[in-house]
Amino acid sequence: MTTARTADAAATVPAAPRRTGEADEPIGAGEPDGTGAAGAVRAVAENARRAARRLALSTGGERATALRLIADRLSAHTGGVLAANAEDLAAARAAGRDAAVLDRLALDRARLDALAATVRSLADEPDPVGGVDGGGVMPNGLEVRRVRVPLGVVGMIYEGRPNVTVDAAALCLKSANAVLLRGSSVARRTNAALVAVIRSALADTSLPVDAVCLVPGVTHASVRALMALRGLVDVLVPRGGHDLIRATVRDSAVPVIETGVGNCHVYVDEHADLDKALAVLLDAKTRRPSVCNAAESLLVHAAVADAFLPRALTALAAHGVLVHGDARVGSYDPAVVPATEEDWGREYLAPELSAAVVGSLDEAVEHIRRYGTGHTEAIISDSQSAVRRFVAVMDTAVVAVNASTRFADGGQIGLGTELGISTQKLHARGPMGLAALTTTTHVLVGDGHVRDGAAVPEA
Amino acid sequence: MTTARTADAAATVPAAPRRTGEADEPIGAGEPDGTGAAGAVRAVAENARRAARRLALSTGGERATALRLIADRLSAHTGGVLAANAEDLAAARAAGRDAAVLDRLALDRARLDALAATVRSLADEPDPVGGVDGGGVMPNGLEVRRVRVPLGVVGMIYEGRPNVTVDAAALCLKSANAVLLRGSSVARRTNAALVAVIRSALADTSLPVDAVCLVPGVTHASVRALMALRGLVDVLVPRGGHDLIRATVRDSAVPVIETGVGNCHVYVDEHADLDKALAVLLDAKTRRPSVCNAAESLLVHAAVADAFLPRALTALAAHGVLVHGDARVGSYDPAVVPATEEDWGREYLAPELSAAVVGSLDEAVEHIRRYGTGHTEAIISDSQSAVRRFVAVMDTAVVAVNASTRFADGGQIGLGTELGISTQKLHARGPMGLAALTTTTHVLVGDGHVRDGAAVPEA
């Protein structure tokens, strides 16, 4: 699961300091595909809906078998996929797309094998549907079970990473959902080839081929059509850059699971162990600056600024990190550039960091409330009361205490394969496992139970 | 918790057969309150946001104490509330509002005592926040806790029942959320008086008074302003008629918890115990026709039509139920009126029922897929395989097996005080307890834990 919005995104650091995310394929770009897009998308969605009904009756064993067959086919039938990918790459080069786009787009045998391995490991995970997560027997003998069931039809809207095509198909199959895949025009041939491999594998299983469908068209019209299918599509999951996610949340009539922006802070408290603080800061900022759980801002309590900041700034410089600091931070190192108001809100996704000195924990909290994005906030402190207060007041998906922000990741906290990191509060918040692709139904079993004891008149 | 969208709605049966829900105050009605509405609503929402931050630090004990004080004040200070209510009633009468509106609006000492009793019993329920609902220690020693926390600021938009004002305030306080109350203009004086009592009680507690705020203005402008406050308001919960809910879902930039329409079916299988089938049908249709978990449609397997329908039609007639039937149903009783296509989709909320004979369980399932609303569907059958199939294919919030649809109710299935019944799939589906007003945060506790073992350079 490797998009820039998920925690394990590829380590590639964009060359440009501006945050670009994966916005290589903004909504609205692509070739015009004329009229009739809405009808074509609806027809495919109706196929997916029928497939979803059959999937709801499938067993976890059938789905695991299908996933393994898909993995085998992805490893075995690389020729067609790589040829299609070469065509996409050539077209992207001809169109003058930049190196980061080309890198995200490119597949080779090793990347395909890695994708197949992900699918295979997903097959081995516990079945996310069918579990009973609540219930009991009521005083009147009515049996109540709350059962996890698939959402139904999931629409994935994403950008130039063809690996999302395989990831999304596998996650949805695992959770017994049908999936509508709407990737980027830049990867259109690659996605079509990957979906063809997956569907040919499905054709050899007990599952419906339309469990995995490519949305026809790569223009904005097809995205608009997808976003309008409330009732036919149960949820949309945008995966990619900030603009894609924002546009989907704003415009979709279909409910959206939002994976969000991470302007993650590391707050070094006056009671911090400064060695641990430095280790966490460097891990959070320098190891994979392009991912959403990387640190983007450092706040240091004034009482430890003299002891911590010179060490930290030297270490950050050694890792090539450009620091945008306030005046006090700048006083320790001439390489620090003055932070602008805009810097405090920036998700650099690059080797850059904003940094400020704060007078108190509460001042740090106020700063984070103002500029944070509700993703992941870290405190480094040995004070039990400071930690307790920070945890209590942080309104965020993840709070890390004396630990790196980079642990905000489903795989790192025991949730298994990760769907992404949600910064919304409803449905799922924080690292999302497969459970986020399920809902519940309540099964009530009686033996002629009535609520109000209605007398039955004689016939 | 007594609105027509929740299961325990008042037993009042609308006189008119057409479904009117609680649409006594459609969005857009009310007096013009001029410009500045958006700014005034935002100012109140900002007060509520500040209150929410303090509430997040409150203990369950403090909140229970506050609820008990509110209950005491509601019982003790009835004069002002009843005077305000009398003014609202007089104004509504003068405006020619119908009897159903007046009945929903009217308060008396007994109704206020019942409201106070609800608030008092809520105080005694378990605290919905602070619970740890997942976590463990990772192999690297990182401690992970998933903790239930309040959503923050909840906006309630509702119609002419002043009891919702108290219910919503109590539910939100119990779950440590601040609440923005936007009731109907028809109840404006009553709501203002109730909120004044609640806030005066809060002023004598450790909790912030702005935990409970009335949204200024009773025109569409104030609703529009509320729906635009994404980021400041965490969720909107519309409670009331279909039109209100649909408009909120369609227009709100703030996420919505949707409580929905219940076109609930009772399917009498060929293997049904017909005595149980009749008891369930009568309970589901006749006891409280005005509530969303009442049955609206009967499907009878052809093999038992001759044995069941004459008895059922006689009993329904004895309860004053008008049946809209297909030709076969009509053949048993001349009082049956022919069902139109529209009837199959109707939520009568009245002593009316659509009824059809189906050739098979699968035909019943197809009918329900086409016309159902995903609320509650019942099967009456002694066939284990028929029940298993029905449960597996029903894509609905609640499936009742040999039990009345009216058990689709939080209180009936052990969820405690009910917020409503959700027909959406994300966040909460089916009867919602207080947990639906919470989200989670992930607390990760390490001791200088880093993910990638970054070496710390010497300073």
TrEMBL record, chains A, B:
Its EC number is 1.2.1.41. Its main location: cytoplasm. It is an enzyme of class 1 (oxidoreductase). Pathway: Amino-acid biosynthesis; L-proline biosynthesis; L-glutamate 5-semialdehyde from L-glutamate: step 2/2. SUPFAM superfamilies: ALDH-like. Keywords: Amino-acid biosynthesis, Cytoplasm, NADP, Oxidoreductase, Proline biosynthesis. Residues 1-18 have a biased composition (Low complexity). GO terms for cellular component: cytoplasm. It catalyses: L-glutamate 5-semialdehyde + phosphate + NADP(+) = L-glutamyl 5-phosphate + NADPH + H(+). Residues 39-318 form the Aldehyde dehydrogenase domain. One of its GO terms (biological process) is L-proline biosynthetic process. One of its GO terms (molecular function) is NADP binding. The keyword Mitochondrion does not apply. Residues 1-39 are annotated as: Disordered. It is found in: Cytoplasm. The keyword Cytoplasm applies. PANTHER family: DELTA-1-PYRROLINE-5-CARBOXYLATE SYNTHASE, GLUTAMATE SEMIALDEHYDE DEHYDROGENASE. Catalyzes the NADPH-dependent reduction of L-glutamate 5-phosphate into L-glutamate 5-semialdehyde and phosphate. The product spontaneously undergoes cyclization to form 1-pyrroline-5-carboxylate. Belongs to the gamma-glutamyl phosphate reductase family. This is Gamma-glutamyl phosphate reductase. The lineage of its organism: Bacteria, Bacillati, Actinomycetota, Actinomycetes, Kitasatosporales. The gene is proA.
